[in-house]
Amino acid sequence: MMTSALEIRDAIRSGRASTVEVCRSALTRIAALNPSLNAFHTVDADGALARAAALDARRNEDGHLPLFGVPVALKDNMCTREMATTAGSRILDRYIPPYDAAVTERLEAAGAVIIGKTNCDEFAMGSSTEFSAFGPTRNPWSIDRTPGGSSGGSAAAVAARLVPIALGSDTGGSIRQPAALCGVVGLKPTYGRVSRYGLLAFASSLDQIGPLTTTVADAAACLSIIAGHDERDATSSTALVEDYAATLTGDVRGLRIGVTRSLFGDGLDPEVLTACDRSLEQLREAGASLVDVELPHSSHAIAVYYLVAMAEASSNLSRYDGVRYGYRAAGASSLGEMYDRTRDDGFGPEVKRRIILGTYVLSAGYYDAYYLKAQQVRTLIRQDYERAFAEVDVIAMPTSPTPAFKLGDRVEDPLQMYLCDVFTVGVSLSGLPAISVPCGFTAERLPIGLQLIGRAMGEVTILRAADALERATTFARELPPDVRPA
Amino acid sequence: MLRFLVPEPSHAKDTFTAADVERLARLARLALTPEEISLFSHQLADFLAYAEQVQQLDTSGVAPTSHAIGAPTELRHDQVTPCLSRDLAVSQAPEAARGAGLFKVPRVIG
């Protein structure tokens, strides 16, 4: 049974296991469970085993590396040289990037073994993985339910213990919401904390990469590896990268946690609210104080988020034109016809909806009314957080208003799908770091996540609070029904 | 399953018509089918009715936020560095004159 990344690394370092054995074990689990979960879109068994053997041969020299021998997965919107990278889209069905993303390079330099690529909503646009061109991923806790999205493949892969670490990307909640729905830890770092070089862009003022893991310590260790300035991404921050795992003391005495009760309105599942309240009470018992805070403009965050994200998406996705890479519609008699048919055949329904709407809000006559207005309200949302963080160190709220919903429940109604992002998009618009940590289960044994939000570059504080909650509870150690040890 | 209550828009939104979708599809270079045009016009009208709430807010004097954490503070030096080779750059093209390092497209000029 797969344990945490740091435990695996230590077992390999000490000679209790070899990288090849660990890699084979992961591949065996993937072969057994992936046909029902569809968590992985691509598995590079041969490449991973060759890499594992090479690492084993260099254990004496490289064993000190922070993820030495640890199998990891990447969401399929991060470039991997010579390994297919589709972003869940037919338009990139056969795309083999000629370069590695910055996170790919950094994980490999840290000694990790990249096992494969995980399924996601097309170009990360969705909250359920149902918008992947390659079929939905299923939730290991309940096979007829969504794992969340868009990084649903990464969350399901970690929840089913196929790999201990999978990277996701988060534009409006796409790491945190699937982490919550699959009962794992998901960290969205501060905007600019991790280089996005080689991440297929969705909405550039919001996109950020982060880890999904089974423990807070693994997320902290992974962040120290992938964070840091990269001159190939001008938005990446030069702020100091810390040894985040070393700051997990379990001590939350004196920590002021803001609670946003006024946001808990219609649509919040009572079991989610109860589990979050109970966890906050545990943090209070551990020495934190709970303070009511208000984020008065949060009710507008979904509208603002989708206006901004769709506008940026319509611009970013104009590059997929069938000329330089990816799919091209056959038989077009002119360049214009080739563009139009390539994009209609190659993109799925959610991507097309967003391109159309993004084009609308950026077009003459509507720009001021929608896009500029949304950017102004974005300022108000950001200022709400700034005011609240003058009073508190962390803000807590549920990650998702409901537990995992059934596949097919929301896919025909885009607005209902968008509304599940109610607790995550304001954080994204403000560029803040946030972590989803397991905080309970519903009566039907569906996982629930608590979201802890920090100040910009305040990852240390939210990781410490999440770790303290993990120490006080057993939720992170519970396994989905079909992966219990025999 | 829980459904979210969607607030009624405060005044009737102009309908988002099929003609609007067709015009935008041309701008966005998408050859949508008639079924897609009809479906999207309804779905996008629903979203715009929902999003109308932002127009009710007074934002006079509020500066727009384009990036949450501000603009890049440190620009790289403007130096020539190695980049993808021409062979690699065309390696993923659906059609290319690979030896010559050129992308191929259908006829542009009549």
Which terms summarize this structure?
A: 486 residues, alpha/beta, Amidase signature (AS) enzymes, eleven-stranded mixed sheet, 11 strands, B: 110 residues, mainly alpha, 2 strands, 4% strand, flat
Description of the molecule:
The complex is a heterodimer of chains A (486) and B (110). With 486 residues, chain A is an alpha/beta fold. In chain A, 38% of the residues lie in helices and 12% in strands. Chain A has helices at residues 5-13, 19-37, 45-57, 59-62, 102-109, 152-159, 176-182, 216-226, 270-285, 301-316, 335-346, 349-362, 367-388, 414-419, 425-430, 459-472; strands at residues 40-43, 71-75, 113-118, 165-170, 185-188, 208-213, 256-259, 289-292, 394-398, 434-441, 447-453. In chain A, strand 2 (71-75), helix 5 (102-109) and strand 3 form a beta-alpha-beta unit. The longest helix of chain A is centred in the last third of the chain and has 22 residues, at 367-388. With 110 residues, chain B is mainly alpha-helical. Chain B has a domain at 18-56: Orthogonal Bundle (Histone, subunit A), CATH 1.10.20. Chain B is 30% helix and 4% strand. Chain B is built from 3 helices and 2 strands. A two-stranded antiparallel ribbon of chain B has the order 1-2. In chain B, helix 1 (18-27) crosses helix 2 (34-51). Chain B is flat, with a radius of gyration of 23 Å. The N and C termini of chain B lie far apart (57 Å). The mean pLDDT of chain B is 85.
Break the fold down into its secondary structure elements and pairings.
The complex is a heterodimer of chains A (486) and B (110).
Chain A: H1 5-13, H2 19-37, E1 40-43, H3 45-57, H4 59-62, E2 71-75, H5 102-109, E3 113-118, H6 152-159, E4 165-170, H7 176-182, E5 185-188, E6 208-213, H8 216-226, E7 256-259, H9 270-285, E8 289-292, H10 301-316, H11 335-346, H12 349-362, H13 367-388, E9 394-398, H14 414-419, H15 425-430, E10 434-441, E11 447-453, H16 459-472
Parallel strand pairs in A: 2-3, 2-4, 7-8, 7-9
Antiparallel strand pairs in A: 1-3, 4-6, 5-6, 5-10, 9-11, 10-11
Helix pairs in contact in A: 2-3, 6-7, 8-16, 10-12, 10-13
Chain B: H1 18-27, H2 34-51, H3 86-90, E1 96-97, E2 102-103
Antiparallel strand pairs in B: 1-2
Helix pairs in contact in B: 1-2
